[in-house]
Specification:
Length: 609
């Protein structure tokens, strides 16, 4: 069967994540953290690049799957003519090693299972040395990495694979525990698999039970919240954009990026999603990660960083991986980290304001970072850049970039001054904001189209223009806003959903062709709410909900021709969009209304949690 991106489910331990297929095969896993080299890479290559299959011998077995309510514990139920059993897949919260646990639990009758384990370190290339230790544990070792597999099932080596068959009857369970460790440290974990299952379930339920109801959208909001938590690197609070690299934005195409890093463009949306649901400790961890990552010379501000704030993310191609369904190249690292994108200055500034408005305790570096950052941006905002979509072509004066530069100065100018010196700074920042505003309105708006345009002098549109009302650049009832929303709908809609821009007519340094971008469609929902078209917004939102796969996950993009998901998966940006749009529809004043009305709260009340 030809694989689809939406065939996969996510499990993880808030430091890394694995992707599990409908058929019970783990085809992607990086250890010990999200951006480490994969030891299972069949997702982007073939079986020879590493996977772990666990399924009935009977090829006709009927399979169904779901997450345990409120958790990231995946249950895949197999039913055969002789019985039924469930495979429970999860990763335990670290203590301190990474454990991937699979438990086969018999329900009725008896079922014969088979398992095949192929470990290939270094993104599917390095074959480990396999030995059996004195206690029966299987050791798979190569260089710095070692995996230990504990199970009562009988396994043996066969053609550089570890294979085995076993039978499970009603009331029985057969556990498998795969532990990653440094090959130089003699440390092992020997926890009971069923006790680890209970501990992991308690961890996720304690987290998800705090989620307030969101009316009819409570279930997808909670699933999206769990997904965001799963994509969080717990030691630092950084949130990766996706769990994998190089899943294509077009099958067979080359728009394949590594998204296992943290983007500043996600900052404000993510903070709002967490705070609006009452998750202030997660919001504070993300805010603090952000301020650590951007500390330093503002001229060196990047659009993305590693999970611990790393700046060096060199991009290279993996020639031994054929790509998902032949979509080459497979990339590790991301060259866009070295691009100039003016919008990130606005994202950081707005994130700090939203954190203050939401009641997060002030951070001691915020004021200093704001001052030096704006000083630098005041001489930079007139320059062209690569824009939010990280074009690999010529720099341009992107309208969205200028608008977000305005956001940076506008938010600073909204501060309540407490001294004459602060009053002078506020006045200066307001003057720069006014200059940018006038420049955008004069050069970024096309009267003939009745719409703002992608870049100065262009006739092309861009879904990022929907950010103009969402950040409060112009009021929702301004005819230029309504004209822009209508133009974007008319010219960028494909089967009711939004493209980022027309890759056929815009030169961005890559071959044309991609699906509809789901986060942009959520922005359209939010924009429609702002201009009072709530019924239309709700209809679009419910269409977007129908695109989630059977376990409630969303990728970056969607292919209207085939109905399948495209791009990296699961995508934090899509799930943040789902949460915020649900809140905008459910509440009288949701995240969009609060962000557009950007008044500053001078002395926010710190919140706990």
């Amino acid at each position: 069967m030809t694989p689809r991106i939406d065939d996969y489910a996510l499990i993880g331990d808030c430091e890394t994540a694995a992707l599990v297929s409908r058929a019970g095969s783990i085809d992607w896993l990086c250890l010990p953290r999200f951006d480490a080299p994969a030891c299972f890479a069949a997702l982007l290559g073939g079986p020879e690049n590493g996977f772990w299959a666990l399924a009935p011998v009977d090829a006709e077995a009927q399979a169904s799957r779901s997450y345990r309510d409120g958790t990231l514990i995946l249950e895949t139920r197999f039913e055969t003519s002789t019985g039924a059993a469930t495979v429970v897949d999860f990763m335990t919260p670290r203590q301190p090693l990474a454990d991937l646990v699979r438990i086969v639990i018999g329900e009725w009758g008896e079922v014969d299972f088979e398992t095949t384990l192929v470990v290939r370190f270094d993104y599917g290339r390095t074959v480990p040395w396999v030995t059996r230790l004195e206690d029966g544990t299987l050791s798979l070792l190569a260089g710095p990495d070692q995996l230990l597999l504990r199970t009562p099932a009988e396994l043996h080596g066969e053609d550089h694979r570890t294979v085995g068959q076993f039978r499970v009857r009603a009331g029985e369970h057969v556990p498998f525990v795969l532990t990653h460790k440094s090959s130089t440290v003699e440390t092992r974990q020997h926890g009971d698999a069923m006790l680890e299952l209970a501990r992991t379930e308690n961890f996720w339920r304690e987290f998800s039970d705090r989620c307030p109801p969101v009316g009819a959208y409570s279930a997808p909001v909670k699933r999206s919240l769990i997904t965001l938590k799963a994509l969080t690197y717990e030691p630092t609070g950084g949130i990766v954009a996706a769990a994998a690299t190089s899943l294509p934005e077009w099958i067979g195409g080359s728009r394949n990026g590594d998204y296992r890093y943290c983007w500043l463009r996600d900052a404000t949306f993510t903070l709002q999603a967490f705070m609006q649901l009452g998750y202030y400790s997660e919001a504070r961890a993300w805010r603090d990660w952000l301020l650590r990552a951007v500390a330093g010379d503002p001229a060196q501000l990047q659009i993305m960083y590693g999970v611990a704030g790393e700046r060096q993310l060199p991009e290279w191609e993996v020639p031994w991986l054929a790509g998902f369904r032949g979509s080459k190249p497979v990339r590790v690292g991301n060259a866009a980290a070295g691009q100039l994108q003016l919008d990130v200055y606005g994202e950081v500034s707005d994130a700090m304001m939203q954190a203050a408005k939401g009641g997060l305790p002030p951070h001691p570096r915020t004021a200093a970072l704001r001052g030096v950052g704006l000083e630098y941006l005041s001489g930079l905002w007139r320059e062209p850049d690569e824009g939010i979509w990280e074009v690999r072509g010529e720099r341009r004066h992107f309208t969205h970039s200028k608008v977000m530069a305005w956001v940076a100065f506008d938010r600073a100018a909204s501060l309540v001054p407490h001294s004459e010196e602060e009053a002078l700074s506020v006045a200066r920042w307001r003057a720069v904001a006014d200059d940018i505003h006038a420049d955008v309105c004069a050069r970024g708006f096309d009267p003939e189209l009745g719409s703002f345009v992608q870049s100065y002098g262009s006739k092309q549109l861009d879904a990022s223009l929907l950010q103009i009302p969402l950040v409060g650049f112009l009021p929702p009832d301004d005819p230029r806003i309504r004209g822009t929303i209508s133009a974007v709908q008319d010219r960028l809609t494909w089967n009711g959903l939004l493209l980022r821009y027309d890759t056929e007519s815009v030169e961005d340094g890559l071959p044309p062709g991609e699906g509809v971008f789901l986060a942009c469609s959520f922005w359209l929902v939010d924009s429609l709410v702002l201009i009072g078209r709530r019924d239309e917004a709700r209809q679009l939102f419910e269409r977007l909900l129908s695109l989630t796969n059977d376990v409630g996950l969303l990728a970056e993009e969607h292919d209207p021709r085939t109905g399948e998901m495209l791009g990296n998966f699961p995508q934090a940006f899509s799930h943040v969009g789902l949460i915020n749009s649900a809140l905008n529809l459910h509440r009288t004043a949701g995240p969009a209304q609060e962000r557009a009305a950007h008044d500053f709260v001078d002395q926010p009340v710190p919140r706990s949690g």
